[in-house]
Amino acid sequence: MARCTWLVLLGIAALLGCDGVIGSGGPGGDDPFSGPGGDVGAIGAQVMHRLNRTEYRNTVRDLLGTQLDPAASFPADDVSLGFDNIAQVLTLSPLQFELYEQAAEDLTLEALTTGIRDTIVFCDPNVASCRDDIFRELASRAWRRPTTDAEIARLQQLVDVALNEGEDVERGLELAIRGILLSPHFIYRPELDDDPLSTEPHLLNDYELASRLSYFLWSSMPDDALFDAAANGRLRDDAGLRAEVDRMLNDPKAQSLVDNFAGQWLRIRSLDDHVPDYATFPQWDESLRSSMSQETKLFFGDFLRGDVPMTELLLTDFTYLNDRLAAHYGLPFDLGPELQRVSLEPTDPRFGLLTLGSLLTVTSTPTRTSPVKRGVWILEQLLCSEPPPPPPGVEGLPQDGTSSGTLRDQLEQHRADPTCASCHNLMDPLGLGLEHYDAIGAYRTQDQGFPVDASGELVGGQTFADGREMAALIQEDARFDLCVVEKLFLYALGRPAGSSEHPFLEGIAQSFAQSGAELPELIKLIATSEPFRTRRGTLEESQ
Amino acid sequence: MKGPKFSRRLLLGGAGAVVGLPLFESLIGDAAYADDSFPARLICYYVPNGMHMAAWTPSQTGSNYQLSPILQPLAPVQDQILVLGGLSNTPAQPDGPGDHAGGTSGFLTSAHANKSETQIQLGISMDQVIANQIGDATRIRSMQIGTDGGGNSGGCDSGYSCAYTRNISWASDTQPLSKTTNPGVVFNQIFDGTDPTASIEEQERRKLYKTSVLDYVQEQTQALEQKLGYYDRVKLDEYTTGVFELEQRLEKAGLVCGASEEPSDTGDIVEKVRIMNDLMVLALQCDATRVITFMLGNAGSNRSYAFLGANDGHHNYSHHQGNPANHAALQAIDTWEVEQLSYLLQRMNEVPEGTGTLLQHSQVFFSSEIEDGDAHRHRNLPVILAGSCHGAYNTGRHIDYEPNKSTNGPPIANLFLSMMAAMGVNQGSFGNSTGSLGQLG
């Protein structure tokens, strides 16, 4: 009973499976058009977005300049499609609400009793009109839109609660600010439709668009300049939007695209949770982990700044190393403890994204490489490709004890079974092309006494001799360009593109390729796209 | 969180990060009886990746059974537990791969998860059915606790959202209840910010202020709701529930109950599980809540148990391929998990309540999302039911409900029906139940 036991032998059968379907609407899958509102209109439905942990943290930082980090004790946000900012799964439990309430109280106390106070309380709060100004200023920033007079008046009523108790205005301010910070307008990012039942797309208002932009680029609230651009209608045309994107990408807060977009797409964050086996890899330590993490962040930073086009992501002639990492990679650089940009030769065994230590490590098990995991990662994250569904019984219990030979031999045995081959012909060669890199990303020519053979053949018939040649094939794959667009779109909007939005993705991909494929341009193309600038209502409870 | 708040401590002392229970005069002897003046309480205890069944299942059934190797740590409480075999959870069977997501989402729901990354659809969990009925009696309707947040480790399971792999408590078809993995948060939940140094007037005033702020945001919520479409209103409803539950809690008196200082998270899993076990005992003992769910790891956890000599990941080992070395590693991990359960039960047994103990007044359900980690079966689930819950169960036995392991035995939902009944919650049916489970009494 051969069946697809190798999957199981690799120990990842369940978590990866054959149908790691990512992205656009597979059959019975995640097409948002089959979700809220049904398959109507050319624009996908956008569900109201709760600030996730990162967004909350950054927002209170930018709103108040707090030294506190209440988000550190929030429950983890559920992840879908590889990202933690997918609006539909950002639910809110009573526990989370309780922690929001506590956070509002703690943040307010800090704001009123430290230097933060001067930035919020800029006039004499004993004067009612001054309090109006204080509330208007703070609430409009916290809620990321202008406030109404009625809203301000209602906040004054919270002051009255304290006054009626015989306490001072100070306590009243405290209550009002707590209210502002606990408000659903703060916790969520509401976007309104004139007619919530109409599926006809309409433009977002200026402030809603400003928020989409700032949470896309900064994982945080808009700054004064962005509010100003919104107030003056400068976000209504492409030129204005593009100018804002340029300005915002130059802000240090754009690092959030590295930490949160690349951090999840390229799995840099996963490195924090990954524990290689100490007995197998005694050289693994915190210094190596943080060096790898920094390498990938700095590497991606070059693309984010537009210094290097995305068409070179898989084949670069540079990376960032320090002494520790250079030694780990076996590269003869004399560097200090700080990571520096180094040039790579075509003969070096490092050549871009796929040879970054962080990625090679997190796609391994604690004790050894997993060509299947690596292959699946490439398929899902770089090619947005759906392998065919697995055959039934794929996780059957084998009766035949242990196997021997190289991973390659064992995988080949496994693929001899046609039912297994359907999936594994897609993923195994991609992973085996990286067998020169062990489970913590060090270069090797032998694996357990066997010489490493990293050659292979892709399903399309293209052959390669090693990882570098394989990377070139992936880089040229038409799916790669579109996949980058798809991933960034998913992150930008907090939802996957629906099938009827694919023309937008394809149009963006085409413009992107023609423009020279620099990442800032892709960000602008997405920010100025119709799905990003518009929204629509949903039919009531339709499926 | 460490805000500029008053410190919440400590009517009884204790050292360091360890939460201690108040010491009573003596342990309770065997002659203790359940005391009906104390409420029934529930803990559901989840461990990932199934069990190494060959070393889990006792070879005899009935009351004179020998504990299996993995169950050995339960010897001190053997007379207070039931080992249940042969129960199945067929709704947990996923569509294609995804047994960890299917099994975990179905763990307490006996519902079938909609396979999707964005369209979350499942069913209410049994702990929440119970909390809906008895939760108002305590300040906290129910608590969700765990050890692993989940971070960002790529996909969760074969096209299923991580919502299905990281939550076992579900308030509704669409709302998973996220768990806290932070001991400090659990501690503060239990003690609820009650400041024993504040005067009655001051405490009343603080309550009024909290209520005023909650009223304010609730008004805003209602106004906002008018302008939203259906799906956004569903989202906002979660917020409204949060407001409502917190308002309810304010109506209830602050808790006076023994504790030591707020525990901290050292990052050490052994320490963390022990602290969480202590906190669960404390929460029940203080009657802060009567319903708790606990996840010792998320679905398909690949934690390395190097301290047990199991250096590779748990999930990797669980696909053991019949390899004896993998079996040995699994047995070490599974035994350790059962030790944690045993510690919890023994602590509960040390809490005297009238003529009985906390354990006698409680039921602790312990199981995993699948049976064998390699076969990924959703039948013959490894189940321990501990505590007699006021004599609802005749403990001290091993019951096998389906000796033929290739056949689906009775739905585990039947057990859930019986467990609900033991809590005084009588439901006609739950999940795929066909009736209450026999032989328990």
How large, in whole angstroms, is the Cα Rg of chain A? 26 Å
Q: Helical segment tally of chain B?
A: 11
Give the overall average pLDDT of chain B. 89
Strand arrangement, major sheet of chain A: 1-2
CATH topology value of the largest domain in chain B: Alkaline Phosphatase, subunit A
Largest sheet of chain B: 7 strands, mixed
What is the makeup of the main sheet of chain A? Answer: 2 strands, antiparallel
| Beta strands of chain A, count | 10
The N- to C-terminal Cα distance of chain A equals 42 Å
- Terminal-residue CA separation of chain B: 45 Å
Instruction: Point out poorly predicted stretches of chain B.
Output: 1-32
Biggest interface between protein chains, with counts per chain?
A-B, 124 and 98 residues
Unreliable sequence segments of chain A: 1-39, 395-403
Give the count of structural domains of chain B: 2
Shape descriptor of chain B reads globular
SS elements, strand count of chain B: 11
Give the helix tally of chain A.
24
Structure in words:
The complex is a heterodimer of chains A (543) and B (441). Chain A is mainly α and 543 residues long. Chain A has a domain at 50-189. Chain A has helices spanning 5-9, 13-16, 53-64, 94-113, 117-120, 128-142, 149-164, 169-182, 184-187, 206-217, 224-231, 238-249, 255-265, 286-304, 323-329, 357-362, 371-382, 407-415, 418-432, 467-476, 478-493, 502-515, 519-527, 530-533; strands at 49-50, 188-189, 202-203, 318-321, 340-343, 446-447, 450-451, 456-457, 463-464, 534-535. In chain A, the strands form five sheets. A two-stranded antiparallel ribbon of chain A has the order 1-2. In chain A, α13 crosses α14 (286-304). Chain A starts with a helix and ends in an 8-residue tail after the last strand. With 441 residues, chain B is of the alpha/beta class. Chain B has eleven helices and eleven strands. In chain B, strands 3-4-1-9-10-2-11 form a seven-stranded mixed beta sheet, sandwiched between helices. In chain B, strands 5-6 form a two-stranded antiparallel ribbon. Chain B has a two-stranded antiparallel ribbon with strand order 7-8. In chain B, β5 and β6 form a beta hairpin. In chain B, α5 packs parallel to α8 (269-285) and α6 packs antiparallel against α7. Chain B is globular. Chain B starts with 40 loop residues before the first strand and ends in a 19-residue tail after the last helix. Classes of the chains: A mainly alpha (543), B alpha/beta (441). The interface between A and B is large, with 124 and 98 residues.
